[in-house]
Amino acid sequence: xxxxxxxxxxxxxxxxxxxxxxxxxxxxxxxxxxxxxxxxxxxxxxxxxxxxxxxxxxxxxxxxxxxxxxxxxxxxxxxxxxxxxxxxxxxxxxxxxxxxxxxxxxxxxxxxxxxxxxxxxxxxxxxxxxxxxxxxxxxxxxxxxxxxxxxxxxxxxxxxxxxxxxxxxxxxxxxxxxxxxxxxxxxxxxxxxxxxxxxxxxxxxxxxx
Length: 209
Hints:
By secondary structure, this protein is of the alpha/beta class. The protein has six helices and 15 strands. Helix 2 packs across helix 3.
């Protein structure tokens, strides 16, 4: 599939299996989401440019490297995307965090933006959109569209589990946006849940039903 990177690192796959288990309690589930998001962050940010500079170690001069002026923003889709923020933020504490909330209109079935709060300089930042599940792709595609309407040019989408249907929708509507996930599952069921998936990520994160 185009624009898709699936993480096959053993530690990620181990933690994803624990996350899928229906008997994993909410506290452990939250910790696993945090840990997997942190592990994914390293590859998601692999293309950040570096610049060299001179520094002094305790034994003498050396050449060091730092991120070359790239500003980042993490934008979780409410509410489940909140669970992925801290793990990513731990790797890039200088990133700013925005939020976007969507609901589906019961009449038109179209996603509607009900809340958005972004850093004031977000147009100058590389934006990483976070949502644990990419199922139908409707919410993810809509969130990215709302961000593009605000002149945001550089966007990545990061999820834990994706369905082929969601990948197809996102590739069709936003072919310029790379997709990163920890697992690509089989399909959607009749209720638009990912199979085998892990259930409702928001409910499992926050202990709701």
